[in-house]
Every structure is written in C-alpha cells, then in structure tokens.
Write a structure and sequence with these properties.
The protein is mainly α. It has eight helices and no strands.
Length: about 240
Amino acid sequence: MNAILYLSLFLSVIISGLSVLALKINAKQLKLLLAFSGAYLFAISVLHLIPETYSSGDATIGVYILAGFFLQILLEFFSEGIEHGHIHIHHHDHKFPMTMMIGLSIHSFLEGMPLSGNFGEARHGYQDSLLTGIILHNIPIAIALMTMLLQSHVSRMKAVVLLMVFALVTPLGTFTAYMVGQNMAGDLSAYFDKIMAVVIGIFLHISTTILFEANEGHRFNFIKFAVIVAGAAVAFLLQ
C-alpha cells in the first residue's frame, strides 16, 4: 500500500475544507476552482483514461461508461449536485441531510477504487494523473460541503466531523479494492477496465456539467476560459 496516496487523498480534503474557517472563499473563487478541476477531469478522461481502458479490446467498455454517467445522475438526486459546487442551505433545521452524505460518499468511494495497486503495474502509468484529478475534484467539494454546513448553522464541531467522514471515503474505496484484491483467488485486474469505465462515466458527467455551468448565460468570460484551458493543459502535460 502507498501511504502517500492515502494521506494525499485525506489531507487534501481536510486542509481545503478547514480553510473555510480561516479564509473567506466566495462563490466566484469556488467556480474558478471548479472550472479548473472540471477541465482537468475532462482532459484526463479523453487523453488518458478512455484510450487506456479501450486498449483492452473489451467491446462492452462503452456500456460501463454509460452506466457510470447515468449512475452519477441518480446519485445527484441524493447529493443535490454538491459534486459540482451546488450549495443548498437547509435553514429549516440544523441537521445535515444524510441522503446527501450517502450520495456524495458513494460517488467518492467509487472514484477511489481504481487507485488500488491491485490493478497491475501496467496501469500505474496514469495513476498519478488520476490521483491528481481526484484531489483537484475533491478540493472544491470539500469547500462547498464545509460552506454549506456552516451556513446551515451546523455546529463547527459537527461540521469538522462530517468533513473528516467525507475525507475518509475515497481512501476507503482505494483500501477496499486493495483488500478485495489481496483476498481474491483470481486477479482483480480482470475487473479493472469495467470499474475504470464506470469512474470515467462519472468523470464525464461531473466535468461536462461543471464546464457547461461555467459558461453562464452563454457569455464569454476570459478568466473562466483561461482557467479551463489551464486545467486541460496541465492534464496534457502530465501525459
């Protein structure tokens, strides 16, 4: 197991989420973060993940990509779209909506699974870019989650505990895949392409939603355009 991988996934969420307590991150800054991460996710999907997954020659890969895409649509009925920065304030009570946490957790758990080292040395070529993409994706989610909790008047202690739960979910997905692989009689890598295809579908839905929303009112915004280009360029340079 790679301790740095697990720490990177966990600490990136904790640090970015706790930054809300010390810094005032407005909606405009959050949207720029989302635009960068969305462009990066879309670019690594097109440049790295889709070509690699299709290289296996499995004709059913497209079915799993579609399944991931529609699975994310279903999850957003529970998560209320917080994966792409939607902040829904619940002033009527001080309870965190558990269905939102469940939807967000399933999303994050699935994202973490392909990072497991059980998928073979041949797959490690783009593990770094995938890890970077998940981290960049989780940073604005953590900020949006913490902002929503605080604006909903959830106590700071409870907000921090829920942030820690979210921070643990993606590493848990990675660890679960690792442990299953260690205890399976067969090779978990045989299932990698299908799992990765589902995650690609999730990435495509999240990234395209973010990028479409970045173009508010179909007006050209140079700063957002530059941020989107920068996100795609970073993915290209990491090939």
